[in-house]
Specification:
Strand order of the largest sheet: 3-10-9-8-7-6-5-4
Largest sheet: 8 strands, antiparallel
Number of strands: 10
Mean pLDDT: 82
Strand content: 25-35%
Low-confidence stretches: 28-40
Shape: elongated
Distance between the termini: 85 Å
Helix content: 10-25%
């Protein structure tokens, strides 16, 4: 009993000494605090954006609002898609239902409302409310399960790791060329609203 009491006193004393010796990090004044700057990575690892600076006292919730870097998509170096793949892509209209990126949780506003019409000759057009706003070429890498889009729209122009379930695809920005981290859910519709 005496040992337990002695040990409890030692623990309390050590806790007090430890807490007293911990120095608090001074917090900057609100008017001088600045958000870390995001910039393109020039570092040895692939990252869509590098956020410089730190925020030691809490989790940082910096949102980067910038257009993805231009990528020259080698759509014409990939083996021509099979007949069934060309038929699958050219059936109906493809429209994004949602898009997400960890560093910009509002990235969906650049995708929602656009409609993609793929053709069997590996071309496609992008429409918004019935008006053509972009065009380009597409390809499919059957081994890597990647969709290649080379177009004028900076948000779609890239290679996309693709998961499929019926006439629904999820494009993921996690390939050798695309390291944006954006994920886009694409659904197939028989006709867009302006043709109904």
């Amino acid at each position: 009993m005496k040992w337990n009491l002695l040990l409890a006193i030692v623990v309390v004393l050590m806790a007090y000494i430890t807490c007293k010796n911990i120095q608090k990090t001074p917090e900057p004044a609100p008017e001088t605090a600045q958000a870390p700057a995001a910039e393109q990575s020039g570092l040895p690892w692939k990252a869509s954006k590098v956020i410089k600076g730190d925020n030691p006292n809490s989790a940082y919730t910096y949102q980067s609002k910038s257009v993805p870097s231009h990528v020259d998509v080698p759509w014409d170096t990939v083996k021509k898609p099979t007949t069934s793949r060309r038929a699958f892509m050219s059936t109906g209209w493809w429209t994004p239902k949602m898009a997400y990126q960890p560093s910009d949780t509002t990235v969906h506003v650049y995708f929602i409302g656009k409609w993609l019409r793929f053709a069997e000759d590996q071309t496609f057009k992008i429409y918004v409310e019935g008006k053509e706003v972009g065009n380009g070429h597409w390809a499919w890498d059957d081994i890597k399960k990647e969709t290649y889009l080379s177009c004028t729209d900076p948000w779609f122009n890239n290679t996309w790791a693709t998961q499929e379930r019926g006439f629904r695809m999820v494009w993921k920005g996690n390939t050798e060329l695309n390291f944006t981290g954006i994920q886009v859910r694409m659904d197939n519709e028989p006709t867009p609203p302006w043709l109904k």
